[in-house]
Amino acid sequence: MAQSTNRAFRIYRSSMTPFRIIGLSSILGALGLALYFAFAPAPPLPASAPGAASTGMPLAPSQSSRTSTATAPPAPASTTLATNLATSSAATPPKQDAAVCAHLASIAGKFESEERQGQALADADAVARLRLKQTLTQISQNQTGVDQAAAHFLLAQTYKPQSDFTDAEGKPLCEKNQHCPAAEAAMAANPGWQQLNALARLALNSADPQIYALAFHACQSVGAGSKSGYCGQISAAQWVHRDPDNGSALLYLISELGTSPQAGTKAALDDALFRLSQAKKFDAGLLSLAQFQQRERDKLNDPFVQFAFMLYGQNGYTNLALPAFQNVLVSCKPEALRDANRRQVCDGIARKLLSDDAMLISHGIGKLMAHKLGWPEPKLAELDEEFYAMLEIMRELSDNNAQQASSTATGAKKIELDCQLALRGSRHMERSMELGEVALARQMLAQQTTRRAELAAKYRAHQKSQAVQKASAPVQ
Fold first, then answer.
1. CB of 47 closer than 8 Å to CB of 378
2. Cα dihedral 410, 305, 315, 159 sign
3. Sign of the dihedral defined by the CA atoms of residues 291, 296, 298, 302, in that order
4. Which end of the chain is more exposed for a tag (fewer CB within 10 A), N or C?
């Protein structure tokens, strides 16, 4: 039975809606890199050696900068890279991961049919989620500050706005991101919406930028619901007001200003762009959430409940709405760069995105801007090589996971393998929230024996092959 996922495990996972088990590479691809490549095809790597001296923005110090200059011959990439990728995502997986997967397998092993196995797993998961909700509810009611906000944030992940904004046939009841009276009654009765609304109310009454960041992300993730209740009062402008030197908040503000019909938008946009070029930090508020999850999860003595905790946080991470970079790119297009002041601002933004922002998409946008700004060729080559090498690691990790998912194992053994794969994806996300996407990718890059230049070349060859296949595909 060689299929992507054991059917019983699929039945179980479908019962966990809206939880989604997804790997870090899939997130980066689906949410971030598509936007990057929509704006710029990969420029060719110059022949000059990476790491040559230049006056462009230096890469943050990391072992990856030494990978491309190593003299020892690399081991065959087909085996070594896959092995390293399989182990680098979590150097020592917590013991509870093995306990969870063994527990799942033991539950499923009591039944022969996959339908019965899936239902048994779903029933056990329902009990675990109930216990988790009780724990988080107690925290939301008895704690204050960021812990209270984080508990509301995680409980709000049970809210499914599509169920309140569509009729029985799935047709929309109202326009996206617009006030929708037809859905307000259903929303008010939805426990997940109540948690979301409580988080937004908490943020509006708090000067803490971490609390406001969590509320901003939670409200942005619900689409049409973002304009209803207290979420309708949450804005990037107020986040910036609470944290004026935060580049992450400024990126969302710049996105917000691009769609604002209010007078004075151009002056506000120019001011936000300048402040972004001078940002002292990039803090999306995810580290505090990750720390809360780990601290509270470790207090639980049930591995299955801990697994459910991971899925709550994972769903929140995958639902994050990224800032739109169009306003930054349009503001820094070639004709705008003829103005010396605007060029200086855009150069500052590129440097900040490359050196300080934790998101891989921001790193890609910064690299694109560096090309448009005409940074020295040796520095552009260095940036290109590292970026494409990181993307190749993500791509091969995704392929490696897909190969494991297509294992021919059956029954309880297949369920255990699928569980391990799901947990590895969750661990990736946790580390991404802790370290940032760029730092995590660099850490993985530093662990490889394959030279950075080889990884970059493989990624570019893969992209070229994909482009050829797409071009030759029959038009439907």
1. no
2. positive
3. negative
4. C
Give the per-residue pLDDT at 127: 86
Q: Which pair of structure tokens corresponds to residue 368?
A: 């694109």
Q: Which amino acid is at 107?
A: I
Contact in structure between 117 and 415 (CB atoms under 8 Å): yes
336, 299 Cβ separation under 8 angstroms: no
Q: What residue has token string 């996105």?
A: 255
pLDDT of the residue at 275 = 97
**Is 309 in contact with 293 (CB distance < 8 Å)?**
yes
Question: In the prediction, which pLDDT does 171 show?
Answer: 63
Q: Is 166 helix (H, G, I), strand (E, B) or coil?
A: strand
How far from each other are the two terminal CA atoms of the chain, in whole angstroms? 32
CA distance 464 to 456: 12
Q: Is this model's pTM higher than 0.85 or not?
A: no
> What stretches in the chain show pLDDT beneath 70?
1-96, 159-187, 223-227, 259-263, 401-411, 475-476
Secondary structure class of 332 (helix, strand, coil): coil
**Stretch (H or E) spanning 37:** helix 34-39
Using the structure block, give the residue that is written with the tokens 């393998």. 417
**Token output for 270:** 């120019």
CB 11 within 8 A of CB 115: yes
